[in-house]
Write a structure and sequence with these properties.
The chain is an alpha+beta fold. The chain folds into 2 domains: 56 residues, Helix Hairpins (Orthogonal Bundle); 38 residues, no CATH class. It has 3 helices and 3 strands. β1 and β2 form a beta hairpin. The longest helix is centred in the first third of the chain and has 20 residues.
Length: 123
């Protein structure tokens, strides 16, 4: 399979997986979806002339209205994913002293603060 075909295959997968996710029936784990999207992003960055049209990386995946607005008890601070230790450290550096909740691939959460000695964990 050449690069153009791989990009098209990945773009098609992103569209199908995103649609299933927002319908409440995800087909893969979040980490697997992220890996597919990351591979597509890398291939498009390396080969911009092969970017799919339309490009699912440039589209919002959710329908216009999923549910009623939700008011969070604390600001979300970021929607960026952090999968590497240096990305997590960079996030904490951006929000010193802020309490945080970290979602983990296992479904458990960790709560704590960006002050390293204050972290606790619960499942």
């Amino acid at each position: 399979m050449n690069v153009r075909e791989r990009i098209r295959e990945l773009a098609d997968q992103v569209v199908v997986l995103r649609d299933a996710y927002y319908r409440g029936s995800p087909l893969v784990a979040d980490a697997e979806y992220d890996a597919i999207e990351d591979e597509l992003q890398g291939l498009v960055e390396a080969n911009p002339e092969l970017a799919p049209d339309p490009n699912p990386l440039e589209q919002v995946g959710a329908p216009g209205v999923l549910h009623a607005p939700v008011r969070h008890s604390r600001p979300m601070l970021s929607l960026e994913k952090a999968t590497k230790p240096e990305q997590v450290a960079a996030f904490f550096d951006r929000f010193p002293g802020q309490p945080v909740v970290v979602m983990q691939p296992t479904g458990s959460t960790s709560t704590g603060s960006t002050m390293a000695q204050a972290a606790t964990t619960r499942s």
